[in-house]
Amino acid sequence: MTKKFVIAGNWKMFKTVAESADFISSLHSLVEGSEQHLLDAVEILVFPPFTALYPVKDLSPIIKTGAQNLHFEDNGAFTGEISPLMLANVVDYVLIGHSERREIFGEPDAHLNKKIKTALKYGFTPILCIGESLAEREAGRTFAKVQTQLDLDLEGLSDEEAAKIVIAYEPIWAIGTGKVATPEQAQEVHAHIREIFKKKFSKKNISQNLKILYGGSVKPNNSHELLSKNDINGVLVGGASLKVADFFAIIQTSFKLAIR
Fold it and tell me: Of 58, 74, 126, 204, which alpha carbon lies 20 to 30 A from 31's?
């Protein structure tokens, strides 16, 4: 049985254009010799800074790229923002609602809902990030938090649109802290997210086919246990995606688990 994975690296505010190009070229040289059935089973994706997106877009046919953010308007007086028109024919994916965008930059769910709809309109695959804080986890509000985020962020989406979305569960307390949800904790929330989709959208195969990634201090030494869980379809990697060797080690783990 083949289990398909998405292995994504969010570089955040790291890497120059030259460093980004070197990374893509180095990673490509490591993965290009892999057997085709493994490359078919594992989608490799990175989110470079905006400055590097165009320079790296044709460096590897294997490694896809995504934007870390986008504005929901096509253009306008929005200094410092990136419109979907600027990303057209450059990226395949768009990251939406990362906790740093929510927490540091105050992005409300109403804006995230608009961003998802804009991303879909222009043919990008949105990866929607959701997750609870440590206080919410300790108060037993994890399920309620992800339910609220999904209700607000997916408001008004059709079954067809929902089928094109990827979810990344990232408990805020595990992002960049060195802490990581146990594989059992992650699996429990992933299964709950899948159940929410099952109830929210009428077509049964939407929840079954939904890709749900785990993010939060993912490293080579914990990726195997995480990716082994039934409802974990991949990982969104932060710090470990900045080093070619570490990121490739996680990819290799997914290769081993893809065919079993």
Answer: 126
180: left (phi over 0), alpha (psi -120 to 50) or beta: beta
pLDDT tens profile 168-198: 999 998 877 777 789 999 999 999 999 999 9
User: CA–CA distance from 237 to each of 108, 186, 216 (Å)?
Assistant: 24, 15, 7
pTM, 2 dp = 0.96
Spans of all domains in the chain: 5-258
Contact 96, 154 (CB under 8 A): no
Q: What is the DSSP letter of 216?
A: S
**At the topology level of CATH, where does 5-258 sit?**
TIM Barrel (3.20.20)
**What is the Cα–Cα distance from 50 to 233, expressed in whole angstroms?**
26
The Cα 225–Cα 253 span in angstroms is: 10
- The DSSP code sequence of 233-246 is -EEEESGGGGSHHH
Which residues are annotated as catalytic?
98, 170
Q: Are 214 and 220 in contact (CB under 8 A)?
A: no
